[in-house]
Amino acid sequence: MRKVKIILVLLCILLAGWDNPLSRTLSKKTQQGNRYYKQNQFDKALKAYTEAQLAKPDSPELHFNIGDVLYKQNKYQEAAGAYQKTLEIDPEDQDAKTNLEFVQKKLEQQQEQEQEQEQQKDEKEEKEEKEEKGDSDSSDQGEDKKEDQQKSDEKQDKEKEKEKEEQQQADKEKDKEKPEKGDEKERPKPEDGMSKEDAERLLDALEDDEKDVQRALRKPTREIYIEKDW
After folding, report:
1. φ, ψ at 200 (rounded to 5°)
2. Under a CB-based contact definition with an 8 Å cutoff, are residues 63 and 87 in contact?
């Protein structure tokens, strides 16, 4: 009986002094991960925690730590998965519950922000498309106005040319109505010779005119004003 006790004691001593490589790896990598995490070297911390999991895959502490690292890297979906894994192993872990709820809210905010950004992007593209279309329409309208103005000018030119031709035609018609020099009617010339009766009448008229002239010469050439005694 004493021998059995001695053997058990020796076994306990041996087990206590036995160097477990997995345990040593777990401890070492976990400490490295914690140190990198404090230094904000999250990529190195994640690598150290992942390597420590090789020694103890079902460690809730390692899953929790990995969740913290992923949250710091803004990988909210992956962080939520790590906290859920922690709760699967240890459902009573209140810190894991709190962090999981917090990360889920972050996910909702991120999705809303992405939707808002997508909506703003669509609105911006739609606005730019409308502005581009408006510029195109304005350009087309400008071309249409220019073309209309050109047609109007051409119409006015044609009307002026037509009026000019009509005026020229009217002038030609007037010229046709004027008699030519050669077409002027000759005035009747007095017949040659005079009858005896006409000669006598003409002679009598000349004599009468001569008498009138003589009587006119006898009249005083000026008036004499006589002062009256009233």
Report:
1. -65, -45
2. no
